[in-house]
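### Sample
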Amino acid sequence: MTAGAAATATRGPDEVLLGFTHALRAAGVGVTHDRGASFLTATALVGLGDVAAVRAAGRATLCTGPDDLERFDQVFAAWFDPRGELPRSRPAPEGAPAPALLPENDPGPGAGEQDDDEVVRAMASEVEVLRHRDVAALSPAEKARLAGMFASLRVRAPVRRTSRHERWRRGDVDASRTVRASMRRMGEPAEIVRRRRSVRPRRVVLLLDVSGSMSGYADALLRLAHRMTHALPRSRVETFTIGTRLTHLTRSLSLRDADRALVAAGESVPDWSGGTRLGESLGVFLDRFGRRGTARGAVVVIVSDGWERGDPSLLAEQVARLHRVAHRVVWVNPHRGKAGYEPVQQGVLAVLPHVDDFLAGHSLATYAELCEVIARA
């Protein structure tokens, strides 16, 4: 028995079943903590020896609608081996994409530099293809690989000029400091001191739509928020979710481990994969964190597909209010970068006159572009 097989054999049933719920969440199914607990209770009642009963228990407790059933079946088939008792690990199929790492062992005596170059190019090409893939269309294994690639995002804080000045090698002459330096030398000429306006990082506010139509992108968006939270200066990133209500997630995402942070965030959001009332949620955000609060002078990023069940005019009114308070408003739509997309949703048409940037947000490459837009704001 290999080391990997031995490690799998030592895993308890609850660990494997919880891992299955995490894989479902990564695939876009809105699995909450309560649904995961219900799944464990149901499997304990039906027994792990009956594959069909476990599958039925999972479909009943973990799926919220018809759209989740197909994804559930795909993840169930990939996670469990239906040929034996559950839970049982399933070996990786031949031809499955390997992690984008260089080979650990030295090449054999017959391998040349040309073969090494081809391997490196193939791996780099595979990573580049994954960067441009639609997050919602990835398999659970591809999403797991993509999760590790968020650390490669280059995140820089937007800055603003303050009324204070600081000493600098170029810029305007600092007359007072230059005169004082000359006085210390008894009136003899001294080095000319120059200064510039000091800068401070702007706050970045992320408003993430976690409604049912955005469930396929929710995991990636939370990972993006976690990356920004820990890459930018302390207290410079605030994250909220919007759907049927507003939820503040900054404290949950402050956990250093990304997976633990996402679990904590999932447990904090009561309207995961629910409806969409963007106008009302933005109104609550502005009332609590608007003119004199978090949004004042900040770069506000709204990530949503614009499917609004409420009145689009209310959404337009709230985004207009936000534009008057914030330094810059960026709207990110996952469908923006897809071929043939047209902004025909009423919610999108209502907010376009009041946003500064309208960006795509369906892949890691588009998230990198978003980071650059934020840094230049």
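The longest helix spans residues 113-131. This sample (VWA domain containing CoxE-like protein) is used throughout the tutorial notebook.
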